[in-house]
Amino acid sequence: MAVVDVLNVTGDKVSQVELADDVFNVAVKGSILHEVVKMQLANRRAGTACVKNRSDVSGSTKKLYRQKGTGNARPGSIKSPLRRGGGVTFGPHPKSWAYKVPKKVRKLALKMALSSRLAAEDLMVVDTFGLEEIKTKAMVNALSALKADSVLIVTDAEDIKLELSARNIKGVKVIRTEGLNVYDILKYKKLLLLESSIKGIEGRLSA
After folding, report:
1. Cβ within 8 Å of residue 32, ≥6 positions away
2. Which domain holds residue 31?
3. Tens digits of per-residue pLDDT, 74-117?
4. Which helix (H) or strand (E) element contains residue 18?
């Protein structure tokens, strides 16, 4: 098992913790990470783009001008796609871009993402932030001491003080173990785990 130092909010070592090899020491394959990240981004697409067809455009059905003698083309509907203000041909309509990758592949990709952060020495473990109040400045000072400017913080349970203190800091996101995902792990430069969240992560991925 890999052994990682546990730090306090001032960046000092207070203890050590062991990380399970079957979760944090998995061979990384870029193709699997790419496939899962691509799936996550596709599932986030709104798919709400929509145009009006000629049947959706409001307008009169009156013939625009006489059929012959004007030298112009034969007048069709004012709602024709060929006319300004008419309907759109083959335009986008609401659709879902979502698709699924097998559950085993998603779980493996999550292990790979965690393993890549540990291998790159971008994974930190903190005992607790221990914020007494909702204070952005206190959070900034703690992250500065830990030398983490772009960081994903993982907690084991709801922590309102921590979440609200970090919410306005650019490049910082707080997430709970049940919401941990490949995209967010790879998006941020550092992964910061609260010591209490490690059991939850290993329990979720070891099963």
Report:
1. 105, 108, 109, 112
2. 2-46+98-206
3. 888 899 998 899 999 999 999 999 999 999 999 999 999 999 99
4. strand 13-19
- How many domains does the structure of the chain reveal? 2
Residue 186 DSSP one-character state? H
Same domain, 130 and 175: yes
pLDDT value at residue 121:
92
Question: Phi first, then psi: what are they for 58, rounded to 5°?
Answer: -85, 140
Buried-exposed string 25-49: b where 16+ CB fall within 10 A, e elsewhere: ebeeeeebbebbbebbeeeeeeeee
Q: Which are the contacts of 30, defined by CB distance < 8 A and separation ≥ 6?
A: none
Residue pair 193/202 in contact by the 8 Å Cβ criterion: no
Chain centroid, CA 20 distance in Å? 25
